[in-house]
């Protein structure tokens, strides 16, 4: 009787309000507001504009809407609009889709300066560029400026039938195809390739509909034996805004990291850009390990030389790049920098805290300082809270032992050492 009473007084606006309270305003605007609501004979009928929308509503929001309907004694039925004044194409044969044009440059693998730490990921990229592989998707991650996009461009330039876009572009193109009723053609466009590359996967973070579409694309491409290359600023399990299922799928192929440019790589990039050997030798260790920053240094030196009509010597370079060159790093500055990377405070590192995470971070710092400075073990101990020689020696041995079986820890320490040099 209570359910019947609710049914008699229920109206469409009440149902819409109940749905809006369960999801974000962006989701409601994108998927629910465009539906036609009809209540008749204890059935709520949602009329979608096309089959894709109907399927998506059923799969993502169906259970939630059914629960709301049940509160009012209603059943749910999601259907596709039967007759429209302007017919909407629902088969791929009559839809057309063209991506927004972007500038594409041909980039060879030789343009990527390889160091020992990056030999593995470069080899994986060359392998995937050579043909079908067994480790797709290839997930490349690393900090900004370490060369992820350059490697993706190298792969794109080495293969035929390739689709490459950024995470932000995928979201924009997916949304545009929904608005233009060309979603099926967009799906075909993404799948009609031998290699699919998505740069900056984190651009999908928080975009639920786009992420679902992308995950289905990854599964379809992999089932068809196609190659998939993904890049991001962190490993799959550290991506924010992605659920566990998404993280698991992204990590199901080969995950490889790219480390920031070391002194050798920075010097080589400077010389290739036209900087003299003498200047490159002197400033390489005073530039941040960021490929974008190094490119900015090269451009600044070349532009100065062209405009002023003279070569840039060391004195001119130091004056010209005073805003870009790093000052000599001290042990304290290294520790504070590592505190930011490891998510601990400098005061905690120098204090007496003994939590597991704090002790582990302190031990990592000891290993890094041992590798990048000439400090004695006792001196290292003084910089991390007054630890004695024996404590530092024990910490270093513990970390070195863990590095042998923990590849992630090994890569993390190598990255910290590279940044502190």
Question: Describe it for me?
Answer:
- By secondary structure, this protein is an alpha/beta fold.
- It contains 20 helices and 8 strands.
- The protein has a 5-stranded parallel sheet, sandwiched between helices.
- β6 (195-199), α9 (208-223) and β7 (227-232) form a beta-alpha-beta unit.
- α7 (167-179) packs antiparallel against α8 (183-191) and α17 crosses α19 (389-403).
- The radius of gyration is 28 Å and the shape is globular.
- The model is unreliable at 1-8 and 83-93 (pLDDT under 50).
Topology:
Elements: H1 2-9, H2 12-20, H3 25-32, E1 36-40, E2 43-48, H4 51-71, E3 75-80, H5 119-130, E4 138-141, H6 148-158, E5 162-166, H7 167-179, H8 183-191, E6 195-199, H9 208-223, E7 227-232, H10 244-250, E8 254-257, H11 263-272, H12 277-283, H13 291-308, H14 314-320, H15 331-342, H16 346-350, H17 356-372, H18 377-383, H19 389-403, H20 407-420
Parallel strand pairs: 2-3, 4-7, 4-8, 5-6, 6-7
Antiparallel strand pairs: 1-2
Q: In terms of structural class, how would the helical and strand content be classed?
A: alpha/beta
- The name CATH uses for the topology of the largest domain is Rossmann fold
- Could you give the count of β-strands? 8
The helix count comes to 20
Mean pLDDT: 84
Task: Give the strand content.
Answer: 5-15%
Which strand order do you get reading across the main beta sheet?
5-6-7-4-8
- Unreliable spans: 1-8, 83-93
CATH architecture of the largest domain: 3-Layer(aba) Sandwich
Largest sheet: 5 strands, parallel
CATH superfamily of the largest domain: P-loop containing nucleotide triphosphate hydrolases
N-to-C span: 76 Å
Helical percent range? 40-55%
Total domains, how many?
4
